[in-house]
Design goal:
CATH architecture of the largest domain: 3 Solenoid
Radius of gyration: 26 Å
CATH superfamily of the largest domain: E3 ubiquitin-protein ligase SopA
Distance between the termini: 56 Å
Strand order of the largest sheet: 2-4-5-6-7-8
Strand content: 5-15%
Number of helices: 12
Order of helices and strands: HHEEEEEEEEHHHHHHHEEEHEHEHE
Number of domains: 2
Shape: elongated
Structural class: alpha/beta
Largest sheet: 6 strands, parallel
Length: 408
């Protein structure tokens, strides 16, 4: 196989779409690494094969990739300014941790693309395929994107498209205003009187039909579509402090009124609880005080067990991360656990943290707490005090769901 330097490949790239495509056909097995380059005014438009290329840490200024195939390429930590990605195929393309400003993704297909931790500013994001699009920790600001049905028709797309993205509820907190506006618009759209079959609305959209030749692909099955609509409804209701849909609520496996009564009569039985049962216990106790509580999934990797919202006596809303340690009575909770929870707190910009345990805290932990106003500690004796004071509260809301609660 002929060896090509990065300079050689760049020269070929700048020779135009036809020359480039022919060269790629002659070298189908070549792994192309163009990391760290700066491209100003590069034009590789309709039909250009830019798939499976490593463009990491590059800069693209006033470039035009309209209609190009960027599938499976890597653009991590790359800067885009004034660049057109209109009608591109960006299936499973990585844009993680990139900065995108004054660009257009008009009618680009972003199935499975990764925009996690990406900053997108002042850009057109009227995409056509967001199935599996990852927006975790992405910052979306001042975007052209339809937030109601009328705008969607003007942009030639569907307002429902973004509902197919994954981690939509986990976009960066700086983008919550965009998320709230979008979720509110799509919620109103899909719940208009007479619009009962949202899948039919999507399938019959003229633009969508033209893209998919009058048929919705298998991955857009009615079941998949319905789950996306449920996600929209759920996020909307949570953001607006509304009643949580039944499909979000899971029956608790360990905590019930009978067990709480037994714990009051025999506090030591708390050590017989399953660790999940201890989490459910703390969640239910907080709910009994009128808190809104979300218990994370069993297989979580969030770094915390419970997310909770309460209001102080002045009506000010406060957010909490709560970690539960169901440990044996002779095993103290040390400072490392507290520091780890603070890291998660800072990452998520949550106001306060609480650590509840069936054991006790080391002296180091109490010394650490003395300088903290946002840390609450609940050891075995305080948890037992909670149990003794427990009374079910009809206004307390306990949500046991798969994803953490997102609040405006």
């Amino acid at each position: 196989m002929t060896k090509f330097s990065k300079l050689d490949i760049n020269t070929i790239l700048k020779s135009g779409t036809d020359y480039w495509n022919n060269w790629r056909k002659l070298n189908p097995e070549l792994e192309i690494d163009l990391t760290g380059n700066i491209y100003d005014g590069l034009k590789m438009k309709f039909g250009a094969d830019l798939s499976s290329i490593n463009f990491g840490n590059c800069k693209f200024i006033n470039c035009d990739f309209s209609g190009a195939n960027l599938q499976n390429s890597n653009f991590q930590k790359t800067d885009f300014l004034g660049t057109s990605l209109r009608k591109t195929n960006c299936h499973h393309t990585k844009f993680c941790s990139s900065k995108i400003k004054k660009c257009t993704f008009d009618r680009a297909s972003l199935e499975g693309a990764d925009f996690s931790k990406t900053l997108i500013l002042d850009s057109n994001f009227c995409i056509t395929n967001a199935t599996g699009l990852n927006l975790k920790d992405a910052i979306l600001e001042r975007l052209e994107y339809p937030t109601n049905g009328t705008e969607a028709e003007m942009f030639g797309t569907s307002i429902l498209e973004l509902s197919f993205a994954k981690n939509l509820e986990l976009i960066n907190k700086k983008s919550h205003s965009f998320l709230l506006k979008y979720i509110t618009g799509v919620y109103e759209y899909i719940n208009k009187q007479g619009q009962k079959d949202e899948f039919k609305l999507y399938r019959d959209n003229e633009f969508i039909s033209s893209i998919f030749i009058d048929s919705v692909p298998e991955e857009r099955s009615k079941e998949y579509f319905t789950s996306s609509i449920n996600q929209i409804n759920s996020i909307y209701n949570l953001i607006n402090n509304s009643v949580v849909p039944n499909d979000l609520i899971v029956v608790t496996e360990y905590i019930n009124a009978k067990l709480l009564k037994e714990l009051k009569e025999n506090p030591n039985k708390i050590h017989e609880l399953h660790w999940r049962g201890f989490e459910e216990l703390i969640a239910e106790i907080l709910a009994s005080y009128g808190w809104k509580v979300t218990l994370t999934a069993k297989t979580r990797d969030n770094g915390f067990d419970i997310f909770a919202i309460n209001k102080d006596i002045s009506g000010v809303q406060q957010s909490w991360l709560i970690e539960c340690k169901k440990w044996s009575i002779d095993r103290p909770v040390g400072i490392d656990v507290i520091r780890s929870l603070y890291t998660v707190k800072n990452d998520l910009s949550v106001g306060n943290i609480m650590l509840a345990t069936s054991s006790y805290f080391s002296p180091e932990v109490y010394k650490y707490q003395s300088s903290k106003f946002d840390l609450d500690l609940r050891d075995y004796s305080k948890v037992i005090d909670w149990i003794n004071d427990y009374k079910p509260n009809p206004n307390g809301k306990l949500y046991i769901k798969q994803n953490r609660l997102i609040c405006p």
